[in-house]
Amino acid sequence: MITCFGLFGRQILDYLHVSIPALQVSGGILLLLIALDLLTGRIAEPTQTKEVNVALVPPGTPLLAGPGAIVAVILAVQKADGAAQYAAVWAAIAAIHVVLWLTMRFSLVIIRIIKDGGVVLITRLSGLLLSAIAVQLVANGVFAFVDQAT
What we know:
By secondary structure, this protein is mainly α. Helix content is 79%, strand content 0%.
């Protein structure tokens, strides 16, 4: 999903008549909702309904390739100037994929090492950092709207 938005994100947004600031604000709000769930500990286990095949929409997709990541990739690709910067953006995307794969591959080992208390601590810290990122996304979107209006 991230690769698709990296390659075609600007064209998709142009076709839908959605601006980057609008995506930033909406992504920030959605990210803030996720962050609040992490901070309060109200995370429910994903459930599968009869109508939805979990193979088509994995439960982690909105968190791994959500609005914040999509905006970041579109902006990074848009602001890249020259082959070296494009290569750096795509190398960063590939590196993140490797880190995510390693983390998921060895998640049971990691959980055994950090135990339940460590999971709660990391969840709360992640929620705090994610809420700060969400607020910054909303603020950047609002400032961009103001800049467009003037």
